[in-house]
Amino acid sequence: MTLKQKMQVLTDQKKGLLATNFYNLETLHGVLRAAASLQQPLILQLTRSSIEYMGLQTAVNMGRSALEAFGVEGWLHLDHGDSLELVRKCLDAGFDSVMFDGSELPIKDNIKLTAEAVKIAGEYGATVEGELGYVAKLGQSHVQQMFTSPEEASLFVEETGVDALAVAIGSAHGFYKEVPKLQLPLLSEIHAKTDAILVLHGSSGIPEDQVQAAISRGICKVNLATEIKNMFMKSLQALLRDTDEIDLRKVFPKATEKVTELVMEKLISVQNLKEY
Ligand code: 13P
Ligand code: ZN
Ligand code: NA
Question: pTM of the entire structure?
Answer without folding.
Answer: 0.97
